[in-house]
Design a protein that fits this description.
Belongs to the metallo-dependent hydrolases superfamily. Adenosine and AMP deaminases family. Adenine deaminase type 2 subfamily. Its cofactor is Zn(2+). It comes from Roseofilum reptotaenium AO1-A. This protein has helices at 2-7, 23-32, 42-48, 54-64, 71-87, 99-103, 109-127, 143-153, 178-186, 201-209, 226-235, 243-248, 260-265, 277-280, 284-295, 299-311, 317-333, 339-343, and strands at residues 10-16, 90-97, 130-138, 162-166, 190-195, 215-218, 239-241, 270-272. By secondary structure, the protein is α/β, with parallel strands linked by helices. The chain has an eight-stranded parallel beta sheet. The chain binds hypoxanthine and zinc ion (ZN).
Length: 345
């Protein structure tokens, strides 16, 4: 099954590129810039990655990002992720980046976006991975700061498909950013937002009503609100779910308690994603494998999750059709190896 999942064509829609910074690259970049890390070794960094909640993770995540200084650093970070994605048959990826994490420490907006963008261009030409870039505002900072960041981004609008909202959720409701998201949409940018990860279902409603999002990132607290569940199903608003992240941050105690199967069975458009793979112990393949094992998913479920990833992406309808045709062909090819699965399709 691990091989089958690895080769299943899929898209990733929820990955913070700064969260793909593996300790190996962190040490290499610290060396490059003669910086000292708070860890003595790669092993010590891995051991330090034990989180109680979202904030305890964010503290290490922002500290880790300090080694990202030059355009080359951002290129190397993004290229390393794309190579991993390629090995896991990720055909399309929509990547978040947090410009304020870098501008706050004196790294110009252009440095981060130029390095990431060039790697994404090379990912398309050298690996055949299509991509989109989503600028995330840090919700623990002010709406004014977010608006200023949007202004910084507008000259690079051709490189960005949309804007999102991440960082500490509790106490920072989506409605705080209504004006910024209005302005982003007026410029033709799509919108997404983290909501219902640690925050309540009301934040999911706000993201839909105030920020007019095309997708909800996480959204795993939706089952607490039956009306919301009905709306998400009726509107087919995608949820970009990150199972290993939710366990590592204590949103759910065990994978067996994770609601992804419940959400899928209820007819919501659920996808599987890695969030911050260097910190949470796995990329998309490992997330698929973990829920397959813990929740007893069928191959039909895995197929639906992969199909949802293409349906929920920001590509053209024709690109979706091509991607899903490849996915269907894969199912046909593997039919003989996996007979019970296909009978249910
Ligand atoms: N939640 C909120 N903000 C984040 C996350 C997350 O899982 N990862 C990186 N920034
Ligand atoms: Zn996230």
């Amino acid at each position: 099954m691990n091989d089958w999942i690895r080769e299943l064509p899929k898209a990733e829609l929820h990955i913070h590129i700064e969260g793909s910074l593996e300790p190996e690259l962190m040490f290499a970049l610290a060396d490059r810039h003669q910086m000292t890390l708070p860890y003595n070794s790669i092993e010590a960094a891995h051991q330090a990655y034990q989180f109680q909640d979202l904030q305890s993770f964010l503290d290490l995540y922002y500290a880790g990002a300090n080694v990202l200084c030059t355009e080359q650093d951002f290129y190397d970070l993004t290229w390393a992720y794309l190579q991993r994605a390629d090995k896991q048959t990720i055909r399309h990826t929509e990547i978040f980046f947090d410009p304020q994490t870098h501008t706050q420490r004196g790294i110009a907006f252009e440095v981060a976006i130029a390095g990431i963008h060039q790697a994404l261009v090379d990912g398309q030409s050298q690996l055949g991975i299509s991509s989109g870039l989503i600028l995330c505002f840090l919700r623990h900072l002010s709406a004014e700061d977010a608006m200023k960041t949007l202004e910084d981004a507008l000259p690079y609008q051709d490189w960005i498909v949309g804007v999102g909202l991440d960082s500490s959720e509790r106490g920072h409701p989506p409605s705080k950013f209504t004006a910024v998201f209005d302005r982003a949409r007026a410029h033709g940018l799509l919108t997404v937002a983290h909501a219902g990860e640690e925050g309540p279902p009301e934040y999911i409603w706000e993201a839909i009503d105030s920020l007019k999002v095309s997708r909800i990132d996480h959204g795993v607290r939706s089952p607490e609100d039956p009306k919301l569940m009905a709306w998400l199903k009726e509107q087919q608003i995608p949820l970009t779910v990150c199972p290993l992240s939710n366990i590592e941050l204590g949103v759910f105690e065990t994978l067996e308690q994770h609601p992804i199967k419940q959400l899928l069975d209820a007819g919501l458009r659920v996808t599987v994603n890695s969030d911050d793979p260097a910190y949470f112990g796995g990329y998309v393949q490992e997330n698929f494998m973990a829920i397959y094992e813990a929740l007893n998913l069928s191959q039909q479920d895995l197929y639906q999750l992969a199909k949802n990833s293409f349906l929920s992406s920001f590509v053209s309808e024709s690109a979706k059709e091509i991607a899903i045709a490849e996915l269907d062909a894969y199912m046909h090819q593997t039919l003989q190896e996996l007979p019970p699965l296909y009978n249910t399709l």
